[in-house]
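Incident log, structure service

09:12 report received: a user says their structure output differs between two submissions of the same chain.
09:20 pulled the input from the user's history:
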Amino acid sequence: VKADTYEKIDKELLGYVEDVLLNRREDSTERMLEYAGTLDPKSTPIQLQKLISNEPGPAITPRLNPIPAGVDPLAVPTELPPVPEYKAWADPLQKSEAFGQLQEVMEQRIIYIDGAMGTSIQKHKLTEEDFRGDRYKQHPHELRGNNDLLVITRPDVIADIHNEFLEAGADILETNTFNGTRTSQSDYQLDNAEDVRLINVEAAKLAKGCTQKWMEQHPGSRKFVAGAVGPTSKTLSVSPSVENPAFRGTTYDAVEEAYYEQIEALYDGGVDMFLVETIFDTLNSKAAIYALERFFEHKQLRLPVFISGTIVDNSGRTLSGQTNEAFWNSICHSNPMAVGLNCALGAKDMKPYVDNLSKCADCYVFCYPNAGLPNAMGGYDQKGSEMAEEIRPFCEEQLVNCIGGCCGTGPEHIAAIKAMAEKYEPRKKHAVEPKMRLSGLEPLNYQPKLDNMRNTFINIGERCNVAGSSIYKKAIVDGNYDKVAAIAVKQVEQGAHVLDINMDDGLIDGVPAMTKFVNLLVSDPEVSKVPFMIDSSKFFIVEAGLKCCQGKCIVNSISMKEGEQAFRQHAATVKRHGAAVVVMAFDEEGQDVGFDPEDIIFDPNILTVGTGMSEHNNYAVDFIRATREIKRQCPGCKISGGVSNIAFSFRGNEAVRRGFHSAFLHHACRAGMDMGIVNAAQVIADEYSKLDKELLGFIEDVLLNRCENSTEQRMLEYAGTLDPKCKPTDVKKKGAAPGAKATGGKEKSWRDESVEKRLQHAMVKGIDEFAVRDTEEARVSGRYEKPLEVIEGPLMDGMNVVGDLFGSGKMFLPQVIKSARVMKKAVGHLLPFIEEEKLQSGNTSQDNAGVIIMATVKGDVHDIGKNIVGVVLGCNNFKVIDLGVMTPWEKILAAAKEHKADIIGLSGLITPSLDEMVTVAKKMEEEGLKLPLLIGGATTSKMHTAVKIAPQYSGPAVYVLDASRSVPVAQTLLDA
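09:34 re-ran on a clean worker, output below:
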């Protein structure tokens, strides 16, 4: 390439080559082959040697002429070809009989789903023997608490509960399979294919038998069985590791396969529909949706699907941090029959989120809240009539099509709700405004407004692309993921609406690099609030990225380069993952896959102008014209491109390049360009109207191909006179005195505060960039006699502020974890000084802040809250020994003795956990352990701890409200 420069190529050869390359003659290929046959194959294109004599070649065809003066290169032609007629896409899958029946009923009236299976089972006071039955008498693991197993060992109990809900008026019965995946059954050592299938098939048959008997006894009624698909006991978006936020406790493929296995068994058992419920991590639900779509395609039959999210706290977010609308944007690709919310909140607290969902969803809407909030003893006091009155506004405002109950609700609640709601009309489905709907933790809804570029153009940050940033590439190759994460944070801070992520480089193993980096970014709420663009020319790398994102991404890109069949397969896979897609080649058959036009993004290819080659001169004009025509012929579709390509000829002269970007975007956006891969900060700063007028004139001569010599002479000569470091809005010639604005920007204002204020700000915002510097400044300031006082003072003050903000709903869990990591970095800097102080004082012990045993008690398989507490404590120099879930008291006490623990922490989500915590306290008293006992979890409370647990134990028993409070509580106990 270096030797064969364009200008030196033999002119006769060049004529033939460019006839083919630029498609200038109908017979160009034949002529080229004939001419090539006359050449010595060992000669060079600069020094041709012919094998035989030959007639002179054809005259060289003239290159593209500049657009004549006075002609607007961007004018809309007066005559345009007609817009082709597109056939609306039709789902090729047949719909089940129940699909139409359920749809018909929901159009006519509000329908009712049953109440809490777990609450109803608890009333039966079942023993370990009930859970074992005959089949599992010799099973090596305790089974009490595995409610799903009762469809095999005590089907009479489950059938009675189903029948009670039918009598109360439920139209939909859920199968008793909330924990029916092998992922959840692994906590009971029942994660083999035989037991998992048996549980789900028998659960479906049992519920189906109850509804069929009911319909036989009540002719004309129609009852439905929903296969309950729970969230599993694992999360795909949150790391269980303090040290490695990119680590995950399971994989997307494992969870998706577990869901498929459950779905297949439920179908074989006879369910009418599927209910994906209690979604605390949207990526888990996307794996369930993927499995459902895969199963439906296999069966060539579609069943109704309801999808239900869970808002966990006052911030109005899921546990993994998504807002209500971001959740909808992430799962709407599944076209569910209904979307809703359940669990965690009572009806009163849930209403604003159902209201929001009702406005943004174009399907039916449902909810089944808890019977209020748990009381101090872990139970639910709200009566059916009280709950019905709290739900009345949902019906009066026509927010819902289906209502039911979650934790704490029984047949009396369903009966009361039905009696109240029968007179109200159901919510009417409505079409939502066509928009591109993307999401990270926050929604990004986009609709073009061609009169205002600032409000319409989506900035796609380009710096996390190995082709766009040498710093990023080197950091990835070196494995310095903290550095590349900082690049991502900076782009979002500077205004990127979407973050492009690309790992296509020969030195990088794309799949693990993409997986690790996306998982790392997902753990940082300041970055993951925006959608990601998963960018690769290798589709298997694209898939790896999609499997890490709970939000709705953009895939960049798919094309016809591997043939039409691969193209369609890739498009179908992207759709199943719920992403929008950039396409490099599409035609009128594109709708065959069923993509929403709003999710299709064309990239007509932005190519470089100003190269010195006249055939390149019209590239910008061609892109803009193509943009306008594609938008006209493909309504709803979007246009994107790599903006930095346009001025690659002027690399090294930032003022000129940035000016080109701004001017190009101005014209392209007016023609309909929607988004582009850009340096977001520069796009915002370099507004078209603020560009230097002289510079803009030269740029637009090149960009719009207005002058014959605009590139080779005028532009280059002018660019050579500029200070390469100046800005396109403040042009300076070489040698000019720098103005006041020529230097870098002012450092962040919060950096001017006292070191204590800076540490607090960093803790709240999760900024670890200055953690070591500020901690050291505090240590040597003279205000703290010992390094430990820095921890106990400003650092703990910062964590207390985090706790207050979290408790009031102004922070959410991913932010708390990020704050804890700042604390860990600061503490890590102080530890050597603390150790040195110990040596000087003669204290050579190797103590941490303390050793804490953490365990989810026996009978409970939920550990997400416990894991988060462990992360926060670990970040604050506590040594955490995590015993996992289903932990008997013997194991807890043995571990406390073995590790010489300072504190024991017990966690539980379900009501039976409360009794087990009492047992642990009793056993600690009997064995003389006087360690502080921390109590936490969704059903625990200050009163229950004081009334039920503390009297059984003479040591301190302390209720901890949430993860953010764990550090000050533990520190206070150990300092007492």
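09:41 both user submissions now match this output. Likely a transient worker issue. Closing.
09:42 reviewer note: The two ends are 75 Å apart (CA to CA). The mean pLDDT is 88.
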